[in-house]
Amino acid sequence: MEIIRISGYNIDEKLHIAERHLMSKQLKEHGIDSGHLVIPRPTLSTLVTNYTREAGVRSLERKIGAVCRAVALQLAEGSPEQQSLPAPTTSVGETSSLAYSSGSSDGASVSADWNATVVNAGNSLTTVSAPMAADGRAQQPLVVTPEMLEDLLGPREYVPELGERLMTPGVAMGLAWTSHGGELLFVEAISMPGTGRITVTGNLGDVMKESAQLAMSWIRAHAHTCGIQAAPLSPSGDARSIGSSVGDLMKDRDVHIHFPAGAIGKDGPSAGVTILVVLVSLFSGRCVRSDTAMTGELALRGRVLPVGGIKEKILAAHTAGVRRVLLPAHNRKDVKEISADIKDSMELFFIDTVAEALQLAFDGGLPVQSRL
Questions:
Q1: Active site residue 270
Q2: 313 is catalytic
Q3: Once rounded to an integer, what is the mean pLDDT over residues 222-239?
């Protein structure tokens, strides 16, 4: 039996589906007139990026339904002056901000504020005073802004953490393909006094463990070309000295390579370049550029081999705000599948060798002494 893999929706496709189909479906199911509730595109985008992680739109539809239920509860309350919205993240006496539209359907312009105060923390209810017309009905539809989502749905389930994770040597950002699309894959490494042992953790398959061994073998053989010295460790666990190599890089040293999110299984031949860049960063004491992600497998002689899932990986980088991506040169043909607006907003670098990857991964390039 042949397995046909179908890529998931990108963020723009999810937004179109939500606007054209999911919103009308959920409004109808919850008995809400389309004139009573508006969820503009910025709010839908926040739902997609901070509250869902999937290839399709099933979770997105459930989140939209949860917002509709909150509004349906408000509309169904008997008193027009005191209405309730669920606010599971607000404490008694705290205030949340809701808003009515000033008439703009895209939610870009918002006027009258709702001052909402929790009166019953046990039942997670929030008392809301809304602007009303003389007949007791709302003058304008309720616009759900991105700031309201934490009151309605709770804390963000997925929080970007790019900047702080790349502020120290020994960390780089890779790209992985998963069943729900592309994903950022952080790789971390630390060095400590030891006997030359290499530890790789993170719920990895055999292929990724071999990639780590391959990257370590390559850097041990070419440390002098990268200007890395087998020097004593600094207190933070990385080697700060750069110069001529003296002896074996792993002499009296252990290295631990870790892939966070250990509950998620990881495998596949696409992390070799990322692991190598992490190790060079660790041994040289230089930080990898925080705006750069990479993918590609490594050959023992330093060639960069093609990988799969290029479209999904680039879309994942774009969604996360990463604007520089290193890709194997043989995957140039796969970029044709990506829309022009996304490609125009990013810098895509196609690399054939490890030397090219190292030059692009560090600010000012890496001081390579000879061709790798």
A1: yes
A2: yes
A3: 62
